[in-house]
């Protein structure tokens, strides 16, 4: 059962800017996705010895759901109507840094687990060549005939 509601998520979204009350888009998928992450975050917090109340987790879930909603349909940062231009707001960073809502969700999670969860996607590289002891120096290689 989600800790947050559509009304709470709408309350944190900037009405008329990030959320159109006239269109009233369904926030259920974003709330469900945010709610599915909370148990993992709670387990992480428990491993770190940090206790957060259900009310605190509800705040994190609310801001996280708002973040997921905004990431699915990038919000405007600036608009102009005379020549139809606009700037979208999702260029602050990757993952949770991509919106002010994600940044706030990280701030409200005093365990630090959401921040770690958002940064767990790290590029890694591995050397697939020979190890140093079996490499042949360039000057000792046979030249093609």
Explain this structure to me?
The chain starts with 5 loop residues before the first helix and ends in a 27-residue tail after the last helix. α1 crosses α3, α2 (28-47) crosses α3 (54-72) and α3 (54-72) packs antiparallel against α4. It is elongated. The longest helix is centred in the first third of the chain and has 20 residues, at 28-47. β1 (76-80) and β2 form a beta hairpin. It has a two-stranded antiparallel sheet with strand order 1-2. It has five helices and two strands, in the order αααββαα. With 145 residues, the protein is mostly helical. The protein has helices at residues 6-12, 28-47, 54-72, 100-108, 113-118; strands spanning 76-80, 85-88. The protein has one domain (6-118). The model has no long low-confidence stretch (mean pLDDT 81).
SSE diagram, text form:
Layout: H1 6-12, H2 28-47, H3 54-72, E1 76-80, E2 85-88, H4 100-108, H5 113-118
Antiparallel strand pairs: 1-2
Question: Which terms summarize this structure?
Answer:
mainly alpha; 42% helix; 145 residues; 2 strands
Morphology: elongated
Pick out the low-confidence regions: none
How many strands, which pairing sense, and closed or not: the largest β-sheet? 2 strands, antiparallel
What is the succession of H and E elements?
HHHEEHH
Helix percentage: 40-55%
**Beta-strand content:** 5-15%
Q: What is the topology, as strand order, of the major beta sheet?
A: 1-2
Helix and strand content put the structural class at mainly alpha
Rg over CA atoms: 23 Å
Number of strands: 2
User: N- to C-terminal separation?
Assistant: 72 Å
Roughly what is the average pLDDT, rounded to an integer? Answer: 81
Q: Count of helical segments?
A: 5
The domain count comes to 1
């Amino acid at each position: 059962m989600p800790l947050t509601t559509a009304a709470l998520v709408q309350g944190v979204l900037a009405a008329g800017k990030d959320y159109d009350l006239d269109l009233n888009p369904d926030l259920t998928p974003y709330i469900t996705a945010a709610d599915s992450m909370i148990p993992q975050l709670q387990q992480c917090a428990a491993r770190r010895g940090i206790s957060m109340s259900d009310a605190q987790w509800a705040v994190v879930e609310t801001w996280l759901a708002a973040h997921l909603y905004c990431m699915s349909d990038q919000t405007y940062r600036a608009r102009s109507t005379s020549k139809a231009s606009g700037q979208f707001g999702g260029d602050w960073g990757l993952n949770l840094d991509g919106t002010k809502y994600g940044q706030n969700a990280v701030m409200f999670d005093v365990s630090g687990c959401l921040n770690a969860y958002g940064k767990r996607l790290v590029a890694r590289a591995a050397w697939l060549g020979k190890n140093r002891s079996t490499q042949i120096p360039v000057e000792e290689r046979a030249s093609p005939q």
